[in-house]
Amino acid sequence: MKTPAEKRALPAERRRCRHVGRLRERTGPPGQSKEVTALILERGFKGLSFGSKLVASKHGVVGLTKALAVDWGRYDIRVNALCPGMTWTDLSKQDQERNPGMFVERERRIPLGHAAQPREQAEAILFLASAAASAVNGLIMNVDGGNLAMSSGSSLPWAQALATSPARPTNDGW
Questions:
Q1: pLDDT at residue 152 tops 60
Q2: The domain defined by 4-164 carries CATH number 3.40.50.720
Q3: Which end of the chain has less neighbouring CB within 10 Å, N or C?
C-alpha cells in the first residue's frame, strides 16, 4: 500500500515542473539559460525490500527529468535531478541518537567514508543553476560519496568485502 507521500511524489513533481516551465518560459532575459532541478532520494535507485512503490516513483522522476530536458531544451530551460545520499541534518542526527549503530554502519559503507553535509548538497544545486553548468541538461547527479556507484548491482566478492571491511582500502593490489 502506498503511503500518502508516495501517492503524491510523481504527480506533484509533474505539476511543479509544468508550473515552473510556464513561469520560466515567460521570465528571465532572452538567451539566458534557466534551470529546473528535481530532488530524488538515493534509495529510489536501489532495489528495496517492500520498496517497489518508492523505487517506481523515483524512477518516474528520473524519466520525467530526462524527457523534460529534451522537450524544454529548445526554450533554453535545463532540467537536472539531484540525488542526495546520506546527509547529516538535524533530523538524521536525532535518528542517530535513537539508533547509533545503524548510522555508524551506514556511514562506514560510504566509499568516501563520511555522510554529506547539507552545504555539500546545496553547492551541487548551485553548480547546476550556475553559468558553469550551461551545457548540463538531463543529468541525474548523485551526491552520495560514491555510495550508489558501489551499490550498482555488483555482486563481486571484493565489492561486498569493501562494503563491510573496517579498514579503509588503499590502491595497493586494486
A1: no
A2: yes
A3: N
Amino acid (one-letter) located at 7:
K
The 10s digit of each residue's pLDDT in 159-171 is: 455 555 555 555 5
* pLDDT tens track for 29-42: 545 566 666 666 55
Per domain, the residue ranges of the chain are 4-164
- Higher local confidence (pLDDT), 82 or 29: 82
